[in-house]
Each structure stands twice: as C-alpha cells, then as structure tokens.
Specification:
mainly beta, four-stranded antiparallel beta sheet
C-alpha cells in the first residue's frame, strides 16, 4: 500500500496550493479519505475528510477556504487550499481508512510565509 502526497511548498499569505495524494495497493473507492496536518510543537489535527460516498467535513479553522475532493478513477484525493494563512504551516498527511485498515502517506510540507 502506498499513499504519495504532492503539491506542497512555500506560499505567501493569501495564496493557494493544491495537495494531491495518489493511492495504490488498496480498493480506493471503499476507503474514507482524509487530510491531517501537524505543525511544530502541536498535536496532529484532522483537516478534512471525504467518505466513500463523497460526504465531506472540515475543521472549523479551514471551512470556507479548503476543499477536499476525490477521483475514484485516478485513485487520488486532493485538497485545494485557498486564502492560506501563516497558521496553516504544517506537514500535511494523507490518510485512508476502512474498517480496521488505516494507512498513511509520508507527509508533505506546506509553509505559508511572507
């Protein structure tokens, strides 16, 4: 099983980034997918989720700015991040969950700084 994130980097406050996570080795359409983040010195935080039937949910801190989506033909989940803030700086990780199965990507850095 592999979850590989891409699309991170450095962006100025107010800017946008789009993260993608490519999954392999799992029956992707059966899994609920999520993005988590962890900033230095802080606990890991759930950012956004999308269920197997594409229901979505967001942390209050990102509602209205971030959008999670999935493509079951490409086995990818994406996170569109707009109006980024300095507090969004963190390592973002992709998660796949179904029943007792729980898989993580390696994480990707997002830095918001002027």
């Amino acid at each position: 099983v592999q979850l590989v994130e891409s699309g991170g980097g450095l962006v100025q406050p107010g800017g946008s980034l789009r993260l993608s996570c490519a999954a392999s080795g799992i029956s992707f359409r059966e899994y609920d997918m999520a993005w988590y983040r962890q900033a230095p010195g802080k606990q890991r935080e759930l950012v956004a989720t999308i269920t197997r039937v594409a229901d979505t949910d967001y942390a209050d801190s990102v509602k209205g700015r971030f959008t999670i989506s999935r493509d079951n033909t490409e086995n990818t989940v994406s996170l569109q991040m707009n109006n980024l803030k300095v507090d969004d700086t963190a390592v973002y990780s992709c998660n796949a969950h179904w029943s007792i199965h729980n898989f993580w990507g390696q994480g990707i850095q997002v830095t918001v700084s002027s």
